[in-house]
Amino acid sequence: MIAFTNNSDSEEEPCNERTSLMSAESPPVPSYQDGLQASEAGEAQAHRKRRTGSSRSPNNAANGSTSSSSVPVRESAVENEEEELTLKYGAKHVIMLFVPVTLCMIVVVATIKSVRFYTEKNGQLIYTPFSEDTPSVGQRLLNSVLNTIVMISVIVVMTVFLVLLYKYRCYKFIHGWLILSSLMLLFLFTYIYLGEVLKTYNVAMDYPTLILIIWNFGAVGMICIHWKGPLQLQQAYLIMISALMALVFIKYLPEWSAWVILGAISIYDLLAVLCPKGPLRMLVETAQERNEPIFPALIYSSAMMWTVGMAKPDTATSQQTWDTAEDGRVIHRSPSHSNSEILETRSPGAIHPVTSLEELEEEERGVKLGLGDFIFYSVLVGKAAATASGDWNTTLACFVAILIGLCLTLLLLAVFKKALPALPISITFGLVFYFSTDNLVRPFMDTLASHQLYI
Amino acid sequence: PALGLFLFTIARDPLRIIILIAGAFFWLVSLLLSSLIWFIAVKASDPNNEPLQKRLLIFGVMFSVLLQEAFRFLYYKLLRKAIEGLVALSEDGCSPISIQQMAYVAGVGFGLMSGAFSMINLLADALGPGTVGIYGDSQLYFLTSAFMTMVLIFLHTFWGILFFHSCENRSWQEIVAVVVMHLAVSASSFCNPVYVGSLVPSYVLMAVAATWAYLLSGGSAQNVRRFLLCKS
């Protein structure tokens, strides 16, 4: 989801970013023989959270503290000017989002191309119970549709659950859940990933070294994401986590189900964010009523600098890794807001905005994109790399398509100035280009290349 | 070289990157449509008829060239509108990026995409065992492909500049010249694997296009001389 925050202090500022939060269940690890599968199932379950950027932070800034030194005061009277400035900064922000999305995709594609493990079919997640090994096409299609229905309903249930939790202020529960999930993600998945990469390149590594590396990686990651840390390090960790999650999806979702799920998720994203009764929208409104920023977790922030003195026991970012599964919103923030938004934890509520703002330094305007968006973009490109017979052409085409979709979504964000779903346009473009490139362009290019003709 | 162009001139400015990606996108769409046409034609015809297939291929190539130029035109229109928007937004009333820069970037976008599509599978295969042309094909396959791709990328860049300039000044003969050049280059590639027939004319045309574009962009012989002699 993409949310746009104005750097305005006025309360009647109509353009607030909205965030929608998807409920995340804590992953009960089911008892399967394949422990890996089980843990990944649990992982995926917890991963089902969604998150939207909070829109209220500008108002928080206004309410919370007058000493918001970092907030460049912009009167609502000059709304037009703001609008222009926003659009003007638009290109820069687009690039700030291009780079991480590109990086994530590159990591996923590189891994898919080189490490065999992620393209082998070793079973399916619990969320996609129907197998696709059926003999007939119709049966396979039916199974994939059923798989999609199961998965989407799981997502919906979790979103509603999270919204309810938020409504009834069970913040501790949510935080604990998020911490648990990010723990598992950081340690377990990294271990598996590292193991597979080492296997591929035939590099031997003894256990103590492995433990040391993974422990360091995981610990720093937890600190960076949930608490404070250098912005770039946090961004790097978020990218890596998204890539790991995307790899899990690519491995464990059967072929046709993956494509149908991608399509269904973008539709769901559209509905959940824009419909008046959608869970995400309700979340946003609840947060607005309470004048709190919605869960800042599960959001990738592109430009934020804050002082080291900021004390933010921030589990929100752990939520980041889980939430943004389907609902990626880009939140456009003015400096102060982005700070309070990203760093603010849910738990103590009102206190945080004040403290955060007071300690804030001037930040650049940043844009926020939900991590779920990263994940699903990477899933699309990774699947294209893994399964397309046209290899790199298809991957490249999907990549360009997704970037263009992101551009358009950001443009719409600048126009509409409220939280927008980031998935639909990009995924639609990506899917269209994938199928058309694979089936139409590939034979053409192959024939051209074999005769060495150039167009 | 194209990558160098990209790094030095485009990567600094975010707006240019966006225009680049959009240009690549437009090229991609044109390729999609042209391959759709070719695909339909192939399906509708007899797959065993060898000369017919070859002719269909040629037809497909020509059609694709025409479509590419059409999309370049569409992209030009879009950029015109975008420039008006940017001018309205900027503080001092003039656009942060001129139409010539846009032309250049658009050209590079087109070129990069076409080059990527031509080369990338080749490059991926090049990592495999070193068996080039053991079935009697030319041994220089990779080399010539590389050179041809490079010349195509540059050509797209120059064509972009020429095309936009001619659209600005409404001089139709330039547009026609660009289209004809493109067709000529593609046609010359039909002479492959007699590489002399394709590479040499392409490079000649590229030199022509380069000087033309340079002159259009306001350069002159004196500028070149001053640059080369490192005068201030």
TrEMBL record, chain A:
Keyword Transport carried by entry: no
EC code: 3.4.23.-
Region (Disordered): 1-77
Chief subcellular location: endoplasmic reticulum
Domain of life: Eukaryota
Pfam families cross-referenced by the UniProt entry: Presenilin
Cellular compartments per GO CC: endoplasmic reticulum membrane; gamma-secretase complex; Golgi membrane
Biological process according to GO: amyloid-beta formation; calcium ion homeostasis; membrane protein ectodomain proteolysis; Notch signaling pathway; protein processing
Cell location: Endoplasmic reticulum membrane; Golgi apparatus membrane
Main function: Probable subunit of the gamma-secretase complex, an endoprotease complex that catalyzes the intramembrane cleavage of integral membrane proteins such as Notch receptors.
Note on domains (UniProt): The PAL motif is required for normal active site conformation.
The protein's name in its UniProt record: Presenilin
Automatic annotation (TrEMBL), chain B:
InterPro entries per record: Aph-1
Key words of the record: Membrane, Notch signaling pathway, Transmembrane, Transmembrane helix
Main location, first listed in the record: membrane
Domain of life: Eukaryota
PANTHER family per the UniProt record, alphabetical: GAMMA-SECRETASE SUBUNIT APH-1
Family: Belongs to the APH-1 family.
Record's function text: Potential subunit of the gamma-secretase complex, an endoprotease complex that catalyzes the intramembrane cleavage of integral proteins such as Notch receptors.
Assembly: Component of the gamma-secretase complex.
Protein name: Gamma-secretase subunit APH-1
